[in-house]
Design goal:
There is one protein chain. The chain has helices at 14-33, 47-67, 77-97, 105-121, 134-156, 158-166, 176-215, 222-259. It is built from eight helices and no strands. It has one domain (40-59, 75-259). 69% of the residues lie in helices and 0% in strands. It is mainly α.
């Protein structure tokens, strides 16, 4: 098999080489025993997986550290910042979904933090952004897609949830033959939309920085790296906001059924198709 040509982003990373040296033989042995053939047997753990492992370790470590130092009477500065960020995400959930939006906080906040850290890792020398890999962004998109469908079925019941594909809130039943294929295509395209939007922005940003660094190193890539600080946070926010909108659309009918039209529903109205 011919060797693949290295692209601008395919540069060796010390942390990736170290992880593969330590865990690679075990992963390769388990994979080959299961019949899986690695494209690079000498490095069975790809860079984006190593970066995901690093993010997981950092979040877990910081969480354990913060948990042991939580204080209601005398909170530290870091605790105050974390609480403000959590309240901001919770407020966004309650604004769009209603009072019950807080129950979705663990997944939405964790996924948003993961994407934010993943976007910014590409700006750190010696690391790469795992969100510059389509495998990572597709995994995040599929997680949200499965989760909001699960919550929709849990909130409305399987029959009512499937019915809303044919007759979304506000649409008459006679439009079901038209609305059903539109809704199905809309929901299926959300996986592609979420994954490609995030992947394209972060990969393009890393590609431009890598090219500029190869042409004129050090100072020239700095403006793009500064722009990356803005776009990295913006892309994480867009992913979180779209995830909340999809969740709201999946569980919104529950509020209409609970209130029977007597009171205005909490949060924003669900879009018929996003």
């Amino acid at each position: 098999m011919a060797a693949e040509k290295a692209g601008p982003l395919d540069h060796p990373l010390m942390i990736v080489d170290t992880v593969n040296a330590v865990l690679g033989p075990v992963v390769r042995s388990v994979g080959e025993s299961a019949g899986y053939h690695f494209a690079k047997p000498e490095a069975p753990i790809p860079p984006h997986i190593v970066m995901i492992m690093l993010i997981t370790a950092v979040i877990t470590g910081v969480g354990l550290f913060l948990r042991s130092r939580l204080s209601v009477e005398n909170p530290g500065k870091f605790q105050i910042v974390v609480e403000d960020l959590v309240l901001a995400v919770r407020g966004l959930l309650e604004e769009w979904i209603g009072p019950k939006g807080g129950r979705f906080l663990p997944l939405i906040a964790t996924l948003g933090l993961f994407i934010l850290m993943g976007n910014y890792m590409g700006l750190v020398p010696g690391l790469m952004a795992p969100t510059a890999s389509l495998n990572t962004t597709l995994g995040c998109a599929l997680t949200i897609w499965v989760y909001y469908h699960f919550q929709g079925i849990k909130a409305q019941g399987l029959g009512s949830y499937l019915l809303h594909f044919a007759a979304p809130p506000g649409a008459p039943m006679w439009m079901a033959p038209i609305m059903l294929p539109i809704e199905l295509i809309s929901h299926m395209s959300r996986v592609m939309s979420l994954s490609l939007r995030l992947f394209g922005n972060i990969f393009g940003e890393e590609l431009v920085i890598a090219i500029l660094f190869m042409i004129i190193p050090f100072l020239v890539p700095l403006p793009m790296m500064f722009l990356g600080l803005i776009t990295g946070g913006l892309q994480a926010f867009v992913f979180v906001l779209l995830s909340i909108i999809y969740l709201q659309g999946a569980v919104a009918v529950e509020h209409h059924h609970d209130e029977h039209g007597h009171d205005a529903p909490h949060g924003h109205e669900a879009p018929a198709a996003a």
